[in-house]
Amino acid sequence: MQCLAEERVCSCFSGPVTHVGSVSLNRSEQMIFDYLEGQPDERHFWQEKVRSIARSTPDGHDAGRRLEVELWAYLVERSGVVSPFKEQAEREGLPRTSMRNLSDHLLRLWTVPRPKPKPSL
Description:
Elements: E1 2-5, E2 8-11, H1 27-38, H2 40-56, H3 60-79, H4 85-92, H5 100-110
Antiparallel strand pairs: 1-2
Helix pairs in contact: 1-2, 2-3, 2-5, 3-4, 3-5
């Protein structure tokens, strides 16, 4: 159950959220995003990583795939040492979960949009 009220998304699974707009994130993606928002050093590290991947990858889809792999590795690493990742891993294990929506969201959020290719005549 979700509702849109005063530009805030409400969910029966969490409190009001103001940062995802129309992006649908799974629980693991949302947990990473919330963690990055609350940890300035981690957020800065990931902003630079996202920008670096975007610069080094000419295709936006490839950048999303590369970032998705990095985000999954980050979730696995954090699950061994940091709350709330550790608690979720203890409760549910670490089944492979897609991080693609989050990777695409971070690319849109933290990079300059790529110019669209001109249509061929």
